[in-house]
Amino acid sequence: MLKQNLKLKLSQKLSPQQIQLMKLIQLPTQAFEQRLKQEVNDNPALEKGQEENDEFDMDDQSEAEKREEETQDELEDFDVDDYLGDDEIPSYRLKANNYSKDDEENKIPYAAGTSFSQFLKTQLQTFRLPDEQMEIAEFLVGSVDESGYIRRSTQDIVDDLAFTQNVYTNADTVEKLFSLVHRLDPAGVGARDLKECLLIQLKRRGNNPDVNLAYKLLDETFDAFTKKHYSKLLKKFKISEDELRAAIEEIEHLNPKPGGSYAGNSQPAEHVVPDFTIKIKDGDLELTLNGRNAPEMHVSREYSNMLNAYKESKNRTKKQKDAVMFIKQKLDSAKWFIEAIKQRQETLRITMASIMQHQHKYFMSGDERDLRPMILKDIAEEIEMDVSTVSRVANSKYVDTPYGTFLIKSFFSESMKNDQGEDVSTREIKKILEITVDKEDKKKPYTDEKLAEVLKEKGYPIARRTVAKYREQLDISVARLRKEI
Q: Residues near 219 by Cβ (< 8 Å), separated by ≥ 6?
């Protein structure tokens, strides 16, 4: 049985304008510039730059009146259907054969360069090989990854050559051509694992005692060497610590990723544009917003005049009324976008100013140990905004400081209690942990338990498992792998 009833419900919803504002706040400088360009192209009532001055003399006034009469005449003949129908115009009618310097695209070009694979194939041309062997060698070179390795077994390559290239060969022939690929530059390219990569490089270093010992260490005791079981190595090879140290130094000069040494890739570098700049001026901090985040925008005067002319018209047709609605919509959209830009600027400035004051001591010294505990909620409550707004600013914006350019969210951290009951930043504890590891005796590096004891002595009572977690976040190896001769 169907029933009807009334129900009152109170709910909060974001308007489309508020949603758009949040999206604008989230955009970093470069993306914001693209969004601005798109809006200017889409809305003819929105213009960049300062609005023209209203002050003019009598001659200018008569000229303005003349232009207004011409505009009025044009408005009377204005067909809104023609104006609104631009999307239906074929693309060939919008193209022109003439060219102007103003049409140039001022974008930074990136050189295409030579790919790593092509670089290796060019070297293959210096060898005289039968056609079939050259085809196999080129296939091997094509299988090299960006680090310089061929991470596939010989049998897999034999099978792939048969299925994809219609080349039938055997493992011995492929191994022979592997040796040829290993002669290419950079040294170590074409290796199937780290051990083979390092051994290939050592072969090219000539014949001297240190290199020979380094080769034997890797060839015969690779696992023991990587685990730094130095006492076992000293006993097995009957060598002194100085000899082992010299061999280790030879190995440390090898390149574990030979593909990374190739400089011909010419990949576009990612450019970070700081949204803020913090400077120390007269003993105090000075915050500035990147000027590219504060563009000069104004509503088109031509569109405003067109709207006024339509409103003053006595005999209005349906087309004129449609035109009024269209122009008003574009003007309202332009006014809202200008207001949204101002709100974005103010939100960015207020948020960063609060962060700067919260971390004042750090920005004055640059020492990470001066970072105070700070979470998004702290800043949100101080500037009386939502946590999500602060998050949008922190997650995508960069600030240029006297000590480098940083992502704003890197200044946020949780807090922990020290032995005096004071709140300290986890970033501060990590920095002290990093300094402690740097100053340890590398012959007897600290275990996680010992590091916990050292930190406790410094006034930071944290558990061993917490030390292990921070050590991993700092990409610091365990004690055994930090050991040196």
A: 195, 199
